[in-house]
Amino acid sequence: MAEAATAPAARASIGDSEFDRDTAVTRREPGVYDIDLSAGWTIFGAVNGGYLLAVLGRALADALPHPDPFTISAHYLTASRPGPAVIRTETVRTGRTLSTGQASLLQRDEAGNEVERIRVLASYGDLGTLPDDVRTTARPPAFPPLEHCIGPEDGPSPVDDTSPIAERLMLKLDPSTLGWALGAPSGKGEMRSWFGLADGRDADPLAMLLAVDALPPTAFEIGISGWVPTVELTVHVRHRPAPGPLRVSITTRNLAGGFLEEDAEVWDSEDRLVAQSRQLARVKRG
Amino acid sequence: MAEAATAPAARASIGDSEFDRDTAVTRREPGVYDIDLSAGWTIFGAVNGGYLLAVLGRALADALPHPDPFTISAHYLTASRPGPAVIRTETVRTGRTLSTGQASLLQRDEAGNEVERIRVLASYGDLGTLPDDVRTTARPPAFPPLEHCIGPEDGPSPVDDTSPIAERLMLKLDPSTLGWALGAPSGKGEMRSWFGLADGRDADPLAMLLAVDALPPTAFEIGISGWVPTVELTVHVRHRPAPGPLRVSITTRNLAGGFLEEDAEVWDSEDRLVAQSRQLARVKRG
Prior knowledge:
Two copies of one chain form a homodimer.
Chain A: H1 2-6, H2 18-23, E1 26-29, E2 32-37, E3 42-43, E4 46-47, H3 49-63, E5 68-76, E6 83-94, E7 99-108, E8 114-125, E9 134-136, H4 165-168, E10 169-173, E11 190-197, H5 205-211, H6 219-222, E12 230-237, E13 246-251, E14 254-256, E15 259-267, E16 273-282
Antiparallel strand pairs in A: 1-2, 2-6, 3-4, 5-8, 5-12, 6-7, 7-8, 10-11, 11-13, 12-16, 13-15, 14-15, 15-16
C-alpha cells in the first residue's frame, strides 16, 4: 500500500533519480565543485534549504574520506537562486572513525561578484561500520496510516506552479496538524508527515537532509502566516533508513523574541529513529 | 535561600569573576586572539567543552558587530590542554539583525606545530533588541527545591583533586537523576541540576554556553560508565537569563551505534526557557 502510494510513476532508485541528478556536483579541482541548482526544488521562488543542504552534503561526501554525514550544521547567509553555484570545501580534520569538513556554497550576483549563500561545518563517518547496539527510549510518534493522511494532490489545486518541489516529494500530512490550512491552527506547534520522493527513490542519508526541512513550518500551526527563514539547521544522521516511506515529526516548543526552534525526528519503516534535527528560524510577519 | 546557596563566598559580578577572567581573550590583531586556557575548568585533565565554547563565544562577540550568540555550533577536533591557545576568527557575513562568524581554537603540540582543537560556526544578534512576544508551549521541568538537591560538597569527598571545575560551579543535582552515583542508574537518560557559578556571578549568555555542558553525562543514567566525548555541540541562546540559579535539564532519547544525543534546556529564575542545546557524543567504553 505504502509502496503504491510512493511510486505513482516507474520506481527510481538511489543513484538514478531526480534527487540524485539535481544534487550531483562536478569536481572542478580537489575540494571545489560546480552545480547548477535546480528550479525544481523551489517554493515561491526560494530554493529549499534541505535540498541545498543535501547538495553541500554530497560535495563533502566526495571531499572527505568518510561517506555519511553524522552531524552537519548549516548557517544560511543569503537566499540561493536556481542556477550555477560553486561549492568550496575544506578538510578540517581526518580521523579513523570521523572526519570533519567545511563547505561554502557561493553564487555570483548581478555584478558578477561571488556571494556566499550557506556555510556548513560537518563531521562524517561510515554508518555501515557502526555497532548494532541500541538503547533508546524514543518511541515513534503516533501517525495515522499513510492513506488517511493528506497531500497536495488531495487538495483543490493539485498542480501548484509556485512550488515545483511539491511535485518531487511524496508528502502526506497528518490531518491533526493541518488545522492551519483550514484557518484553525491548533496552536500546538506540531507538524507530522509521511515523506518520500515522488519518483519512488528510497531515502538515504542525503535524502534525510532534505526530509527534515520539507514540511510546512510548524509556525503555521501556531497561527503565524509569514515567512519563516532558517538561520541555522543541524542534522544528526543516526542510521541508514530502511526502504519505504519515512515519518517526519516536527515540534516547536519555544517561539519567543521573533525566533523559534524546529525539532525534527525522522523514523524509518522499521521504527528506527534514523535522524534528528534542530533549526533556529526567524519569524517574518507576512 | 537560593541566593545563599549560590554565594558561599563574596558575590562576584558579571565582568568581575573567575569565569570572566578565565575566558578573557586578548586581541593580538583584528580577528586573532590569545588566551591561556585555565586548568581550573578541567575534569580528569580534560578541559571542559562548555568552558572552551564560552572562550570561543567571547572571541566572536568581540570580532562580530553583534554581542550575543543566537546559535553557535562547535565541532570538537582534538583534546584541548590547559595553557596558551590562539583563536582565529573570520567574519562570514554581517547583517542588520544577525551576523555570522567562524572561529578556530588552536594550540601547539610537542613539536611546536599548530593543532586545531575546535572549530565553531555561529550567528550573533542582540538579545536586548528582541520583541517580548512569547508563544511557547514549553513548561519548566519538575525540579526539587535547590536545598533538596545534591552537590559534590554533600558527598563523602567534597574536595576532588581530579575535577577542579567542581570548585567553580554550583551544581545541585536532582536526586532522581543520581541513581548512577549509587550504582542504580535509572536507565532513563535524564540529568537535571541547578546551575550557578560558585563565586555567585550571575549567568549571562556566555555562561549558558558553559551550563549546557557542565552536568554529568546522561549516559551514566543509561548505565554507561565510559568517557562520552562531544563530537558536536550546538547552543541556541533565546533570552538573557534573569539573576539567580538556572535549572538545566538534559535528556538523551537515542543511544545507538555508539553515539547518543544530549538535549539540554536551560530555565531561568523567571521560568523562561533561556537556552536550548543539542550535542552528538560518542560512547567510549570505560
